[in-house]
């Protein structure tokens, strides 16, 4: 399989929002509002941008948000270190849904996404990073279920267009895994490795897989943290396209715009070396570019 070599020049990739985040994550496009939401994890905030006028609003959070999801009927479900809560985006009120199912001194919620049945699938991150102490949870009508899938940093949750496959990444092991998925029951079936990336930082190191999204053709788009690139992978793991970025640490991406062909990419600058930030001044910014394949509208959480 030949990798597409028609890379967009950096001038086609721009900052959609020029104020950098510490660690931007979980961009999601609201089709009805024509707005983009995302979070800053150490900045403890949820953000909203309305293109093309650039209107921006943010909501401070009491602890680090790991991911967000739209709620059917309005508002956002926010997976915080301290637990799950509903954010009323009109009043700013935060209503608790469930306490964190883990030791908050060592873990927090991380990357997540809703399935088409209205469940949130959200992973955790084990912050000591010395063992696979994280897992993957589903949240259905406020009830959490641990699917007992060990990881150190759970990331990259996404679903195939036919809802028969769920993807999950363990960033620390540089591995993307695909599971057979039954949407009606929320059960996971047999797993397979979609792709594993080199951990050799001295030779052939292209970053490690972080957040992701699936397009309407079933390809898996993955942000390669420390790799300064986004990859488009086939459902069998071949690299179909590589897009170099003006930031070394992309974290996640979302399809937005009126035709879902605008790619939004969050990036990080938190704890990055000064030399890297000087080389990549857009680190931490929300990046955007146009692509030739449409994404899939985000599903909403059903309370």
Give a written overview of the molecule.
- This protein is mostly beta strands.
- It has one domain (10-290): Neuraminidase (6 Propeller).
- It is 2% helix and 49% strand.
- It is built from one helix and 24 strands.
- It has one helix at residues 274-279; strands at residues 14-17, 24-30, 35-40, 45-50, 55-60, 65-70, 76-80, 83-87, 94-99, 107-114, 120-126, 136-140, 143-146, 154-159, 165-170, 175-182, 187-196, 208-214, 220-225, 229-233, 239-244, 250-256, 262-267, 286-290.
- Strands 1-24-23-22 form a four-stranded antiparallel sheet, with no helix packed on it.
- β15 (165-170) and β16 form a beta hairpin.
- The protein is globular.
- The model has no long low-confidence stretch (mean pLDDT 96).
Q: What is the CA–CA distance across the termini?
A: 43 Å
Provide the β-strand percentage band.
over 45%
Order of helices and strands: EEEEEEEEEEEEEEEEEEEEEEEHE
Tell me how many strands there are. Answer: 24
Rg on CA atoms, Å: 18 Å
Biggest sheet: strands side by side, in what order?
1-24-23-22
Number of domains: 1
CATH fourth-tier homologous superfamily? TolB, C-terminal domain
Defining traits:
Neuraminidase; four-stranded antiparallel sheet
Structure summary:
The protein is mostly beta strands and about 300 residues long.
């Amino acid at each position: 399989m030949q990798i597409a070599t028609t890379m967009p020049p950096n001038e086609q990739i721009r900052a959609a929002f020029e104020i950098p985040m510490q660690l931007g994550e979980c961009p999601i496009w609201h089709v009805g509002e024509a707005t983009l939401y995302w979070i800053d994890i150490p900045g403890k905030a949820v953000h909203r941008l309305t293109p093309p006028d650039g209107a921006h609003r943010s909501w401070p959070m009491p602890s680090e948000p790991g991911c967000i999801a739209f709620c059917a009927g309005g508002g956002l479900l926010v997976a915080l270190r301290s637990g799950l809560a509903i954010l009323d985006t009109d009043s700013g009120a935060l209503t608790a849904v469930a306490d964190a199912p883990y030791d908050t001194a060592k873990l927090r919620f991380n990357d997540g996404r809703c399935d088409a049945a209205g469940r949130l699938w959200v992973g955790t991150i084990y912050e000591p990073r010395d063992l696979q102490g994280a897992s993957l949870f589903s949240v259905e009508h406020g009830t959490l279920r641990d699917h007992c899938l060990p990881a150190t940093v759970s990331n990259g949750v996404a679903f195939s267009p036919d809802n028969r496959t769920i993807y999950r990444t363990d960033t620390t092991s540089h591995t993307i895994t695909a599971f057979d998925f039954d949407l009606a029951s929320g059960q996971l079936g047999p797993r397979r490795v979609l792709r594993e990336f080199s951990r050799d930082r001295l030779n052939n190191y292209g970053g490690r897989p972080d957040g992701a999204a699936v397009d309407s053709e079933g390809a898996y788009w993955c942000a390669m943290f420390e790799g300064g690139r986004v990859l488009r992978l086939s459902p069998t793991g071949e690299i179909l396209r590589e897009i170099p970025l003006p930031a070394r640490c992309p974290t996640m991406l979302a399809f937005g715009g009126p035709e879902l062909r605008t790619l939004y990419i969050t990036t990080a600058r938190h704890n990055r070396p000064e030399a890297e930030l000087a080389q990549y001044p857009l680190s931490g910014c929300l990046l955007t570019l146009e692509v030739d394949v449409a994404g899939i509208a985000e599903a909403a959480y059903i309370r």
